[in-house]
Amino acid sequence: MIEVANVSKCFADLEALKEVTLSVKKGSIYGLVGANGAGKTTLLKLLAGIYREDSGSITIGSSPVFENPEVKAKMLFIPDHLYFFTNYTIQDMADYYRRIYPTWNQERFLNLQEVFNMEINRRIKTLSKGMRRQVAFWLGFAMMPEVMILDEPLDGLDPVMRQRVKNRIVQDVAERDMTVIISSHNLYELEDLCDYIGILHEGRMLIERELDDLKADVHKVQVAFSGEVPSGFYTDINPLYQEKRGSVHILILRGNHQEIMGRLQQYGPAILDILPLTLEEIFIHEMGDSGYELQNIIY
Amino acid sequence: MKWGIAVMSSKTSFINTGILRHDLKRYGWIGAAYLLGLLLSVPLQIVMVYSRQAIHYYPYSQILSFQSPLQVLFWLSVPVLTGIFLFRYLQSGDSADLAHALPVRRETLYNTHLTAGVLLLFVPVIITSLVSWVVLQGLGIEYVKGQEVLVWLGIALVFNLLLFTCSVAVGMISGMSTVQGALTYIMLLLPAGLTLLVWQNLQNFVFGLPFDFLSNNLEKLSPLMRISYNQPFSGAEVAVYLLCCIILYLLGRFFYRRRPSENAGNALAFRTLHPVFVWGFTFCGMLLVGTYFNQSQDSMGWTYFGYFLGSILSYILSLILVNKSLDIFRLRVARNYLLYSLVIILLIAGLYYDVTGYEKRIPPLEEVKSVYLDGSFYRLKARETVPSPYLVEADNDNYQREVTMVYRNAENLAAIHELHQAIVANRKIEKALLHNRDRSTRYRNWCLAYQLENGQTVYRQYWVPVARYAAQAKPILESQEHKKMVYDILNISPRQVDMILISAREVGRNTKITDPALILQAVGALQTDARSQTYEEMTSNCPPWSEVTLLLNEGKRLRLSWEKSYVFFEEWLRNVGEYRNARVMPEDIKYALIEKVPVTENDGKVRISVTHRDIDTEEYLRELENSDNCVRVTDPGEIEYLLRHCTHQDTDAYRVHFVLHNGSYFSSGLNESWGQSP
């Protein structure tokens, strides 16, 4: 659906993106993670057709994006810095978008008022930062986009609203096969939302993974033996990571769930549990080989 | 809905109606305010003039002539502001992002905002003209025809469009609204201003540069200057302005398509334009400041200082502006400035030492078809200058003859060629004196335009001392071809004259000649005098005896002066017994006071004119009489001598004050040679 191939972009003397390649499947949610200044916003603005790439190609549904109204008509971009026309009410902004986006769904717009629970005639400039972000989502959902490009979209939303918006996105993805690319400097925020994660660092794409694969492939277990650790246990198991808390060994292992459990059972452990792995832990271990410390990349 | 299947029709629309409606809604106030302002400054003004019971055309035509300050203010500001407001979104990152994320091409955005601007500007102007027309009709004002309202409308639309498209095109290359506004006005003035500055500065280095010719009509190069000139617009001018609008539209579109959205907020949206802007700004600043010092100090030392000051300040300022930082001082910056200075020094040296041979170039005599020669280039294109309608009305009872000072006579061509060669031969001396003029020397302008056999025209202009080229000028000025051009009296026949009036202003005496036989003689005498004037007589500074007015039978008046060198006319007046009535006589004068004017500039000099009989003058003369610095003359013979030899010249060493029996005064200059005579 979204294909970014070898895209570079320079601003004056600064090389913001270097040969970035990325691919997002239709109906999936792609999380773009990176520290401040990693190039996330630049990449998203290129995807939204605001910037023109210096080299490489960007296509959505195999059509180029830049100066292509047909592609852009089915696309919603919510920037990190929101802009609304001075003195415009929510209704005014809705009218503006309604006249420009052919897929605007007025009924949906009116229905969504219940979710966002704001006076439609309020001037946007009188709203708080978080409320303005809700307005952006409200208008965005009413556009019925096929592709959503969201730059740090959950910043400033309270936990309740954050969850509602996430649910809404997931629902649209499920119902309408919407494709989403969402950026954040925070892995946790994307953990329960994304199918894919890409990590951008200093303008380069460091790593791209499908979360289901990752989660199926890496496991965290705690094991305790009644006596000594059986000899050859570590060399046999070969964990990515190990830690000992009292008599409990915490291991991070790569491999199929069943197979790992089978192998561990052979040693007759007193305790054997699978623990939940956070995304951060997964990436720390995934990136172990690349020479980067994750903490240095996403704060 | 599946991607790529259910798609909207692929229209590449010229405008987007949604955005157009948004523009009109958001910026409708501009149109409303503009309409209000125009209604107050046009139809309301008409009503105001009407209620003052104006009984002629003039006050109404003023309203519809772009001369009213309020209207000029609107014309100059509203179109530019509209361009700034409509494209303001481009100059800030967040709003530019919103616009460019929309499913609308940049070209469509550009055309849509442009259309909105045209509507916001045109609708108020059209409504104003309609209302004005209705008011004129309703009040029954017949002085202004509907056609004039139409012309006003047409010119107003063209100027609104021109200033608006200029503002928009400039907006596409600038990244800040303030820069857009400033650059727009600079661009509107630049063609005329820069041309003028270039000629003005070249004038300092190139001897013979026809500055007056080159700087003539420059206001046409700048719409801002043009609109303040109260002259009707020709169809060609309007066509050129419309062409400019189209070019500006295309330029703006070209730049918008290529404009990187991320450069919002920079002074200029294109990095490639930075050097163009910096060096252009440096060059203009150099010329401007240089010209200022040149004009105010009249010295080349100060001019060079002005070049240095102007260029370095503009260079630094423009660098600060494009880099948006005060931290611009780098070795590279200093090196570039030195390179620039080197180029300028080479340029000036090249001009000064005339590497192109421009100063020496005189067309070979055999190639010259005709030559224009005069003290200005004004009479070169006499037919092209359209006098203001008001001036024509005021002056239309004066005899007018279109004169182009073009010599064709072979002898004159040779003489002019010789004069030109003499000036060019002295060019080193003349050039050295360019900024070191002696104030007591009389200078004059020689403006030349050679028409060559091959169709080319060569223009030159020289500001040189009169005396140095008297020998070369004499045969030209004494030629009958020249006299036929400059003396109106040689171009009429006595049969055209109904009456001759001779008025000696100093004494207020008038003489009337109506007898056709006498008129025939008088005109003959005047013509003989004109034909026999010598160079020295023609260039003398003597005030005339009296003013002669010929009333022609087509109702026109021809005015000329009875010069002191017109001896045939003088003789004729004696013969018909009108001599004593026609001029001021020594008997009219009680006494004359000759005053020595101190050498220092204008100190102690008083201008006295017969018409201004104020107390100060009388007092001054009384004081003068009692001082040592004065000679009192009462002898009629001596007074006659003084009358015949006094001059117009303010810089003469003496001043002579004539006190008449009737109580009035007049005074003249008197040069130093008088003391040697009786």
Describe the 3D structure.
The complex is a heterodimer of chains A (299) and B (678). Chain A is 35% helix and 29% strand. Chain A is built from twelve helices and 14 strands. In chain A, helix 4 (106-116) packs antiparallel against helix 5. A four-stranded antiparallel β-sheet of chain B has the order 2-1-3-4. In chain B, strands 6-5-7-8 form a four-stranded antiparallel β-sheet. A four-stranded antiparallel β-sheet of chain B has the order 10-9-11-12, sandwiched between helices. Chain B is 53% helix and 12% strand. Chain B starts with 16 loop residues before the first helix and ends in an 8-residue tail after the last strand. Chain B folds into four domains: 2-175 and 220-259, no CATH class; 365-384 and 394-484, no CATH class; 487-575; 586-676, no CATH class. With 678 residues, chain B is an alpha+beta fold. In chain B, helix 6 (106-139) runs antiparallel to helix 7 (146-173), helix 6 packs antiparallel against helix 11 (235-258) and helix 7 crosses helix 8.
